[in-house]
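Bench notes, bay 3.
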Amino acid sequence: MMKRLTDSLWNFLQTKVKPHFTKGGKFENLYYLYEAIETFLFLPPEVTHDKPGTHVRDGMNLKRLMIHVVFALIPPMLFGIWNIGHQHFLAIGEYTGLTEGFIDKFIVGIKVFLPILIVIMAVGGTIEVLFAIIRKHPVTEGFLVTGPLIALIVPPTIPLWMVAVATAFAVTFGKEIFGGTGMNIVNTALLARAFLFFAYPAHMSGDQVWIYLGEAADKLVDGFSGATPLAIAAEGGYQALKSFSYQSYGFWDMFFGWIPGSIGETSTLAILLGAGLLLHTGVADWRIMASMLLGGIFTALLFNAFPANDYMALPWYYHLVMGGFAFGLVYMATDPVTSASTFTGKWVYGFLIGVVALIIRVLNPAYPEGVMLAILLGNVSAPLIDHLVIKSYISRRERQVSTITTASQTTEQKTVKEASHA
């Protein structure tokens, strides 16, 4: 039954709709809009054995790669939706338990998260389609990932118009101006967050930015604070985290994620579930994850050895579950377009991000979260890193060839000399 419906729809599109969008049709200028809808609904009709010449057969294309990332985002997305409601009811003194009022918490989270995601997808998708029509090239699927990423790295209280402006800026100037998906030099989602942070700092920092209160703003419990663990640690270091009275900010609380923060960044456990899928499918490179982790641990241990302030004394493993470190490590730094391409370059690139993230986080009291800026710095440094690595490969290979040539010439001269004596 389902197959008959699918075949009927395909035949209808091919015979009745598509001719109007092909060359000579009344809507030929909108062909790539039609093509985007068709390829989203159906597999492309082309098959490799119909084409002459040598080619690689592979089940992975851009659509499949993007959908793997979307699936990997589901764990932090679902947890983030629940946590919006959890923090809401915790702030007004209702449903203080983790499982108490689960459905109510999820409903509140959906009401907050869904409009943010819809605005981002509508604005970003429209811009991508417009550029595709103007340039006369197919609509790519890059924004299927970029949109949810932007939604997960912003606070739940962010005004929708700000999200729209930031998305338009990031897609236009961070991607389309360079040629579209695969051409951008920085992560588009992080560029949107950077734009929000520097253009509207009051809406991206502060205690109550991270807690959706809605109409219950006048019902706050006594002693309420919506401060994130990063903000508390920046103020008073490790001791401040341990003595914070409003709610527990212990290591396991931050690992599981029932703390204030950006929508998708709070639960390290949920992020690790997504990381498992990305590594299993080969979409993300383990070298970047491992090197960024090592860079963060190395820098934190260095601070622990020379603690000039309380924040520098924070145990290294706390940094891995605070703020956006885990989310950036799994979903942002591993972006195959903006990261380093060579194997050695990936190690250098990831390590650099881990080091810079901790340096900004600990040594800059005005900006306790350094992951965003560290990854953007890594993005713009990636081409230089790859260039130096490739140059080093070439120089080493030239030395090897030179050594082999010299040895060969010496052997030949020796043979000639021995032959002349004989």
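Next record in the batch:
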Amino acid sequence: MLCDRTGHELMRIAVIGDVHGYAPGLTEALRVIDELACEAIVCVGDIVDGHPENDRVVDLLRSRTDVISIRGNHDVIDLDDLRFDNRRWLLNLPVHAHLHGFDFYHFSPRLKDEKINSAIKAWNAFDDADFSQAVVGHAHIRALFRYATGMGPAAEELRHGSHDYRLEAGYRHIVVNPSLSYNRDRPAIPAFTFLDTTAMVVRFVSLNIAPMNTLLRR
């Protein structure tokens, strides 16, 4: 692990997901992540189903000892074109991971098949699940939500861009990780999330690569 000048451990985590078999997006993300010197990578699911390079994408993730992968809904359907060992690997993935104070899911922290793409849906997760800081996929958008006791029946959606955002003490947060295949944002370019868990900083990192041109509108 990296340490600062006082000897405190640093932890930089890259969050990727919703790859949908798009090897160019994954390959470029891994290149940028290596330049950022991240100690860990969490893949929040939907690794396959959409682009024809499913086996290549799974092989890339399996070859990296620094990657923790969780299972998405597309990782359990339409797997007939995958090698048997890759199908088995996908089906055995967990649906949740915890690392350095962050909980990672494909869906909502409620473990329900729902997209967190609004302040109301974020509040439902804050109200109904036990977590402090969470990162989810599934919605194919860049989004940040925060909530504190007493805020009422809605979370606060935070403005975001290419700048860093510091997760403030006293709030719970949900980070919605964008997709490496296509995003429902405009522009719809592939992107991932960078977390500095020591400084409690979040950054969305856009990639200089075109989105997958065969889009899954799900």
